[in-house]
Write a structure and sequence with these properties.
The complex is a heterodimer of chains A (146) and B (375).
Chain A (H helix, E strand, L loop, with lengths): L18 H8 L4 E5 L5 E2 L14 E5 L3 E10 L13 E8 L4 E7 L11 E8 L5 E9 L7
Parallel strand pairs in A: 6-8
Antiparallel strand pairs in A: 1-2, 1-3, 4-5, 4-7, 5-6, 7-8
Chain B lengths: L11 E7 L10 H16 L8 E5 L4 H8 L5 E5 L5 H14 L5 E9 L24 H16 L3 H15 L13 H6 L4 E2 L11 E9 L1 H4 L7 E10 L15 H15 L8 E4 L5 H9 L8 H5 L17 H5 L5 H12 L13 E5 L3 E8 L1
Parallel strand pairs in B: 2-3, 2-4, 8-9
Antiparallel strand pairs in B: 1-6, 1-7, 4-6, 7-10, 9-10
Helix pairs in contact in B: 1-2, 8-9
The chains are: A mainly beta (146), B alpha/beta (375).
């Protein structure tokens, strides 16, 4: 783990709504918000359930597995702190439990990523408080699966 | 068609004005906006006293804009500095005219993104996904285009057709910022920004302003230019994935289709009747998504549809004949609506579409909008 002083990339603004996500992430677990009234699961967290407007919501730890919806490779650093990472990959993943999430794609030089690949979340502790999810390809998917 | 109020031919554009496009560090929103307004009322032979409605977009103070112009409307609508607001503003003005809330509306848009070095990424406002380095509207479009490539076999050479056709149009438009022709090879060899997108897939950032004057059909006949009517409008928003920067896993296909069908139905035309498409082209993939959503080609077929110069003047569907955002000016949709008006008037010189009678504006964004203009 790099020292907190060395970390200059953008950090999340943690508030009451997002705090549980970051707490679970710190323990290497991916959690999403779920409505206790209608069961709708969604992410990022919202103050009311977007489906039924209930305020009665909870956090559920999910599998961390999902399908690669897409990925893209940054060749430009919009923050100076990313210059040394270039090129770096971001991805969108549809979790097995439904919601879309984003993260960084861990690229394995021997396997070209494909839309539809099965991926799983791993957590990378970047500061004392913050761990970020990255996605690793675990099984090639059907390219072209919707 | 939905139950949306039918505003077909209840509003007409009678004046359009644009400024030069470039870098104007000595200007502000009010000087540029006033210049576009002066040009629009001069274009239409309109008296300033006739203006009783005001739409301002990307202008911090609607009140100071009104004071600068000496107009005190009875209907005013300020809009945030988002590209998707052009379609929203024009449709709202049509509604205000159709329902009698205003009789003559000035719509003013300004942008000083060039001289103020606006970056469109690495935001100071803080997005949930910033810690992962996922930022910028271009990244959202890169993610969408990668998915389109995987699902449908679309290639970057096909995507290049969009930028090449629109740059060709810019070379026919003396006011366009970019004047040098480009080829598919130029596009393929351009430096990557967020792969699979390259520099020539990204729009410009420049300063400038646009003004449109809209009025009722009865009043439209009193002005100098032949009125250009708003024949149909359509709208559908899609906010479900808005935490991601400009990304939708389905390319906003359904809302685009829905807003297009509403506009076609209201105007009484089909996609076969469209002589000119003006398409919000912040990034080249948006044009492909628009072509599919509006039914100019089948879903997933936009790549092959655009091959061979389909979008060029003289091609099957001339698109963004002014050079669009990619090569004319980043006026966030407003200049594309002005181009639709000028083409129907037949004022476009070397880039004129022959017998242009149906011009369609479309924006494929979380706020999908379409507007159809006819003589």
């Amino acid at each position: 783990m790099p020292s907190a002083l060395a970390y200059t990339k953008p950090l999340p603004k943690i508030d009451a709504l997002t705090q549980p996500f970051w707490e679970y992430a710190g323990r290497g677990k991916l959690a999403i918000q779920a409505c206790k009234q209608c069961g709708d699961r969604h992410f990022p967290p919202t103050p009311v359930c977007p489906k039924c407007l209930s305020q009665d919501q909870e956090w559920q730890v999910v599998s961390g597995r999902g399908e690669l919806v897409s990925w893209a490779v940054f060749h430009r650093a919009y923050w100076d702190s990313f210059v040394n990472d270039l090129p770096y990959s971001v991805c969108i993943v549809r979790l097995a439990e439904g919601p879309l999430v984003a993260g960084n794609l861990i690229e394995d030089k021997s396997v070209a990523p494909k839309v539809g690949d099965t991926v799983e979340a791993v957590f990378d502790q970047v500061t004392e408080e913050i761990s970020l999810m990255r996605f690793r390809i675990t099984a090639p998917g059907r390219t072209g699966s919707p | 068609m939905s139950e949306f109020l039918n505003v077909s031919r209840k509003a007409a554009v009678v004046g359009v004005g644009t400024t030069a496009y470039g870098s104007f560090p000595d200007q502000d929103e009010y000087s540029l906006g006033a210049e576009a307004f002066r040009n629009a009322i001069a274009d239409g032979g309109i008296s300033k006293q006739d203006i009783d409605g005001l739409v301002v977009c990307r202008i911090p103070s609607y009140a100071w804009m009104g004071e600068v112009l000496g107009v005190n409307p009875r209907w005013t609508l300020p809009l945030p500095p988002h590209g998707r607001m052009s379609g929203i503003g024009i449709i709202e003005a049509a509604l205000a005219l159709a329902t009698g809330r205003a009789n003559c509306v000035a719509l003013i848009y300004t942008n000083l993104g060039r001289s103020r070095r606006v970056n469109y990424g690495g935001g100071e406002n803080g997005n949930f996904w910033d810690p992962w380095g996922l930022t910028s509207p271009g990244a959202g479009h890169a993610l969408m285009f990668r998915r389109h490539m995987a699902l449908y076999g679309t290639t970057t050479r096909q995507l290049a057709e969009v930028s090449v056709a629109i740059r060709h149009h810019a070379t026919l438009n003396p006011s366009a910022v970019m004047q040098k022709p480009i080829t598919i090879e130029d596009h393929e060899n351009a430096r990557p920004i967020v792969e699979p997108l390259r520099l020539l897939d990204y729009c410009l950032i420049n300063d400038g302003a646009v003004c449109m004057i809209m009025t009722t059909p009865e009043r439209a006949r009193d002005y100098r230019k032949k009125p250009v009517y708003i024949a149909g409008v359509g709208a559908k928003d899609s906010f479900s994935h808005s935490s991601f920067p400009h990304f939708d896993p389905d390319f906003w296909y359904e809302p685009t289709r829905e807003s297009g069908e509403e506009a076609f139905g209201m105007a009484g035309v089909t996609s076969d009747d469209v002589d000119l498409l003006t398409c919000y082209d912040n990034f080249s993939p948006t044009v492909l998504f628009a072509l599919e959503g509006l039914g100019f080609c089948g879903r997933g077929e936009s790549g092959s549809f655009v091959e061979g110069g389909t979008l060029k003047l003289g091609g099957r569907l001339p698109t963004n004949t002014d050079g669009g955002h990619l090569s004319n000016s980043y006026m966030q949709g407003w200049a594309l609506n002005v181009e639709a008006v000028r083409q129907i008037r037949g004022e476009c010189g070397p880039r004129q579409v022959a017998d242009c009678e149906v011009a369609q504006f479309v924006e494929v964004t979380p706020c999908c909008r379409s507007i159809i203009y006819t003589p």
